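Worked example 3 (structure in, sequence out).
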């Protein structure tokens, strides 16, 4: 049996065992595990010693695995020896193993060593044992992954339709009709298309007020007009272009932007916003909007905050304006480390662009069974439209470089969003109505008051919507799966709950019983206390 056959067949465990790897050979294992204490070599070389248990780590392998930046053949199959070295490095956590990887081009792997700081032989983060372990990423051949891919093909086709025009778009109606044939989107409508399901998130405009309202930055006011990419420009739609990027070559494509910044209106605009944002940018912005006047901080605060009703004190360093800003960075750091552990140690799932390459192979005549994907996807209307438009069934990418060089599952943006929005809901009154809500004009060049026929937005609903926007914005760009978004939000929320409990326990207010706990609604709508 050849290496390629092994990588794409049920002989995967034999392949990994033969290569002396210690990672899991199937994606169906459902049990999460802490990495075992590492080998003497790892300790001697200063590595994490995070060896993996092949019977317990639910991760993807072979063509189902993340392989970007390594050499691939003309069919997009990763070089077997490069893959073996990659798996060894993941299992050892040793810097010299990572430095020895055959990465020859400009697109380098994004910080895999950070994954070992969450749980490793060198010590676990104090919060790690309180945080959920994510379920396995969908199997490559599953109908579940095919349905998620179908959603991404439609997101690509609808990138330039204004999000508030979905109910009037004939193309949206056709997308809804096809997506409703799947389990994933069986109940979707034009008004709920590409939305998640947290409280308030399906109400009113798709986009959150926190992406439109003016932001007070000290004595400065920032208007939320952003650099917007030209309509209709897609990347990695040609086989040669895809292979160059898969091999780690920086793309020759250039993204052009409109001369004037615009308010966010479309999926492409949203995808471009989350292309350039720093990790917790939109949530720092939301905190600024919610705080408003920092010299009168009580108004927006949660009723559970003891400073809301204090006779003599306002919060500042703890549970006040300074705290609101500082906690965005603190909880983001924890969420990113938990996310990187899931990405690099537990799952190492392929990016949608790589799945699109498999769809293209089926569209060009190979059988879905030999390629390893579900046959449904290649025969869909969305894929046929993409192929008619671009000459291939590759998933069109909004970014010239496609996805970043780290595994797909879960989404880092979603993990940060889940964590930051959770702590913002804990600190601010989520039932309070947003004052002076706005919406962009149709051309995106200005803003106007929110349509009075729409529901009045609340703080909690718009924060949930912001989390969904940031998570699904990366899906609009074609670089993440719905699983990445949904599970990333769950992971971030779990990190935030552990972080908030630790904050309460260490604070003077908590130790003296003045702060009895944070109370807010989670993404499922359940009221929780931390």
């Amino acid at each position: 049996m050849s290496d390629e056959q092994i990588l794409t067949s049920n002989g995967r465990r034999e392949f990994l065992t033969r290569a002396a790897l210690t990672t899991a050979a199937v994606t169906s294992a459902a049990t999460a595990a802490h990495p075992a204490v590492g080998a003497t070599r790892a300790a001697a070389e200063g590595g994490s010693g995070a060896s993996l248990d092949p019977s317990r780590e639910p991760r993807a392998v072979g063509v189902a695995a993340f392989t970007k930046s390594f050499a691939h053949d003309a069919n997009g199959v990763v070089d077997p020896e490069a893959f073996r070295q990659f798996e060894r490095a993941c299992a050892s956590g040793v810097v010299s193993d990572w430095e020895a990887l055959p990465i020859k081009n400009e697109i380098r792997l994004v910080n895999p060593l950070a994954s070992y700081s969450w749980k490793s032989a060198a010590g676990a983060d104090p919060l790690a044992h309180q945080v959920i372990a994510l379920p396995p990423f969908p199997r490559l051949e599953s109908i579940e992954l095919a349905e998620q891919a179908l959603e991404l093909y439609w997101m690509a086709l609808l990138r330039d339709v204004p999000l508030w025009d979905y109910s009037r778009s004939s193309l949206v109606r056709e997308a809804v009709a096809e997506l409703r044939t799947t389990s994933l989107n069986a109940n979707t409508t034009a008004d709920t298309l590409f939305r998640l399901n947290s409280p308030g998130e399906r109400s009113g405009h798709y986009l959150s007020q926190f992406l439109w309202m003016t932001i007070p930055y000290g004595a400065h006011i920032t208007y939320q007009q952003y650099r917007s990419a030209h309509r209709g420009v897609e990347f990695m739609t040609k086989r040669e272009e895809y292979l160059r990027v898969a091999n780690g070559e920086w793309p020759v494509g250039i993204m052009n932007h409109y001369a004037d910044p615009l308010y966010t209106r479309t999926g492409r605009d949203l995808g471009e916003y989350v292309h350039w944002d720093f990790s917790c940018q939109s949530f720092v912005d939301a905190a600024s909007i919610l705080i408003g006047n920092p010299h009168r901080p009580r108004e927006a605060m949660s009723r559970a905050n003891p400073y809301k009703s204090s006779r003599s004190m306002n919060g500042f360093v703890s549970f006040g304006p300074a705290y609101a800003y500082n906690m965005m960075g603190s909880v983001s750091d924890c969420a990113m480390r938990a996310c990187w552990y899931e990405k690099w140690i537990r799952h190492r799932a392929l990016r949608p662009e790589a799945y699109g390459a498999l769809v293209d192979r089926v569209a060009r005549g190979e059988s879905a069974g030999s390629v390893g994907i579900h046959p449904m996807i290649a025969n869909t209307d969305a894929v046929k439209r993409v192929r008619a438009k671009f000459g291939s069934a590759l998933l069109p990418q909004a970014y010239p470089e496609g996805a970043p060089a780290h595994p797909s599952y879960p989404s880092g943006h979603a993990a940060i969003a889940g964590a930051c929005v959770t702590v913002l809901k804990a600190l601010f009154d989520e039932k309070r109505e947003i004052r002076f809500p706005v919406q962009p004009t149709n051309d995106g060049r200005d803003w106007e008051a929110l349509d009075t026929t729409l529901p009045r937005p609340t703080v909690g609903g718009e924060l949930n919507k912001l989390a969904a926007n940031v998570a699904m914005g990366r899906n609009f760009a074609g670089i993440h799966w719905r699983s990445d978004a949904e599970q990333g939000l769950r992971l971030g929320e779990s990190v935030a709950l552990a972080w908030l409990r630790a904050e309460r326990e260490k604070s003077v207010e908590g130790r003296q019983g003045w702060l009895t706990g944070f109370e807010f609604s989670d993404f499922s709508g359940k009221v929780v206390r931390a």
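Notes: The longest helix spans residues 321-347. The chain is about 40% helix and 5% strand.
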